[in-house]
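Figure S4 source data
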Amino acid sequence: MTDRPPLKGVRVADFSWAWAGPYAAMELALFGAEVIKIESMKRLDHVRLRALGFGHFRGADASPFFNDLNMNKLSVTLDLGHPKAVEIAKKIVSISDIMLQNMRPGVMDRLGFSYEAMKKVKPDIIYLSSSACGATGPDREYVGYAPTFGALGGGVHLTGYPDMAPQPLTGSVDLRSAATSAFIMLAALVHRQRTGEGQHIDVSSQETITALIGDALMEYTMNGRSRTRRGNEDDAMAPHNVYRCRDDKGMTIAAAEEEWKDLRRDDKWVTIAVATEEEWKALTEVLDNPVLKNDARFADAYSRHTNREALDRIIETWTRERTPNEVMTVLQRAGVAAVPSFNSEALAHDPHLKERNAFIELDHSVMGKRVVVAPHWRMSETPVHITRPAPLLGGHNRYVFCDLLGMSPQEVEDLEKDKVIY
């Protein structure tokens, strides 16, 4: 075991903004890569300033969203509308292994940062472009954010309940696209290690979502069946659903419904899934319901799936009288998969996640102490860590321009006065 992270020595020139690009770059930063985020006060990353549903933040360095998407990174400021700034940015690329950007196709080309131009700067550069629909094809000019990625990729059509409209997928779609980009960049590093070749990776965010619904695509291709929304139903498993429970205050959901006719945010739910006959037998023993044990509708897996709605009603009669934790405890002890359906607050206080250090406290110089999500993986030989919060805007200008690029402090000051470094 070593304290050396797996990507130590790898440098990334990060020209991305918003969510999908920055999160992909942060995944590499968590692996130990030195990620230099190229920004500008002339056109700030909008996540530094505001977030949908949360309004505006108090300054460019006070966004918790920006922090969660850019930890472990460095930041420099360059006005890429200025030729001198373009030259400096290219020097950063020349000492980097990877360059990534998620502008609309053509934007970086017009600024002088096309893949062909960057190959002249660094012949073995790994260059990743991420956009809504990719850099080629008839839809290349379409502008997109997470909701459109999810819709065009097909994921939204499959998400929700049969009697309801498709459910919009927002920030989570960006993160799925970003994780795909991070994986591809790791694969490209391995390829370059073996062959010495860099490459241009053109990522279509909508296609990264389509890649996640391959079973639905194959079902249509092979069987002519077009899948739609099914809620929590499974192709074969039953029970396989989310069931209402008694809340922690002792009020049943049935009683609460007399006061609130719609589903409240703090309703209590538990998930239960049965995959085998052994698990089914264990469930029937815990519930001790004669109907489940003796009714021919539930005699085998096929019958249970056919009569899953009736089965769900019986199970929910039992779960309504118990809290989610009570259901989880008794069923897990019996060997049945069951876990509460957590909201964000419950996740933050879950003993299991706390024990596994899923969240850590990070000290930000402007926002103070912040609880953030720790890396999602553990590596036995090369541990990964969050070593710093997201960078302050231009917080590493001196280090990058002077220490890495060899510019003098006076030269940097002059460029700042001329708003090249800006």
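Figure S5 source data
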Amino acid sequence: MKKNLLLLVFISFFALFSNADLLAQAPAPPSVTSPIYYCQGSTASPLTATADAGYTLVWYGTNATAGIPSTIAPTPSTTTVSSTSYYVSQTNGVSESARARIVVNVVADNGASILNFRCDPSQIAAADKYSSVFFDWSNNPTLIPDNLYSYTYTIDGGTPVSGTADNTTGSHVQIFGMSPGQSATMTISATLHPCAPSQTVTCTVPCNPSIPQPTPTFTQIPPICEGTSPPVLPSSSIEGIQGTWSPSVVDNTTTTTYTFTPNANECARPQTMTIEVNPDSPGFEDFSICSGTPAPTLDTTSPNGVTGSWDKAVNNMNTDTYTFTPDGGQCASPQTITITVLPSNTLVDFTWTVTEAFADNQKVTLSAETAGGDYLYRLDDGPFQSSPVFEYVAAGLHSATVMDQTGCSSPITKTGILVVNFPKYFTPNNDGYNDFWNISELSDQPYAYIRIFDRYGKFLKQISPNGGGWNGTYNGHYLPADDYWFVIHYIENDVVKEFKSHFSLKR
């Protein structure tokens, strides 16, 4: 009995000693970030904490003591302005740490904003100009009176670096130890005013002009055949310089020069590369020659620069086809063309007809005497046209030209095409211009005559087309400006004709 009592005391003492040892080995609370700020009504994220190796987090919600443990992190509510404490511990399954406190503050939007966040190289000392960047922004003492800002930046997309700026450090951050061409991207937020939108700016260290900038080199892309799959331009040079090309995609239809522009952080010069595209066709075209003319010698270098040979010499009497075979080692395929032999000297002569005298629309129609062919027609020095008819031709003598469109016949020009009409008015003011009225186109008809009347039918004057004309007087007196009538007797196509109309006297 006495021995059993001593064993029970020993077991109880050992258990007490073991619990004290385990208590002494309890872990520290997990690492947390506190306080955390949210803007009222914003979307919150589950809370976070960092447990030691081999430990897991235990969340207790807002319970500083007791409560139901959970492995799921709570998500704070941002519905109302508040300050709420959340608790978390860590455990290894044997012992559990004390609880760490995370304070979540939900604040109202007071309209705060970060002012004039920018790169400001003017505040960088000369010695640091090519090794640092300077981020600056303006104080907002009314809406952000604490002047406390949080920032995170990366250099060329590297590891993020975080920090804070306050009244002690000023509203700016300068990053040192950078190289020319490197860029830093920084995001800042108002630490205690989460409703103020965060802002992000990228600042780049300028290239040092005193250091020669390298010119990137590339392996020349060999000529490609037109229409084949185009090669891809390299995104970096042999030296590893990164950049972009313009144009960015190789054109497989024509020889093109491409410009490589290094990225700003490379501090390198632009470079060019010309990629030659060899044609898939020689590029010859069908053509015509005049029969009997010297036969042309076909070129052995095509319009597209392809060299080769033809299957035969040109026959200058008959239309035929000819095949060009490119020399080896070229992209082009053989090509066949047709050389059309046109008949020569088909234009023999031409005649013309003119609408009867005094017609409202005076037309001249040319008629070529030919042995076939297509022709162009011209009146006086006007443009050539395909139609042989010319309308509303002015009175007087004209010339006409007929030309073979193929050039296989010599053009023919004739003069003496007479269009008869009368002047619609004259101005007898003795200025030496248009002082007399007459129908001079009939001056070669000695028996033609013209009688002139006033509007009431009173006979005033008889004149001859081959004379000087009427000066607008009657018995030596000037007649007033008015319309006057005339009757002309003349011969047309061996027929005696009479024509009546009127004209104006203007003073």
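The CA atoms of residues 480 and 505 lie 8 Å apart. Confidence is low (pLDDT under 50) at residues 1-24.
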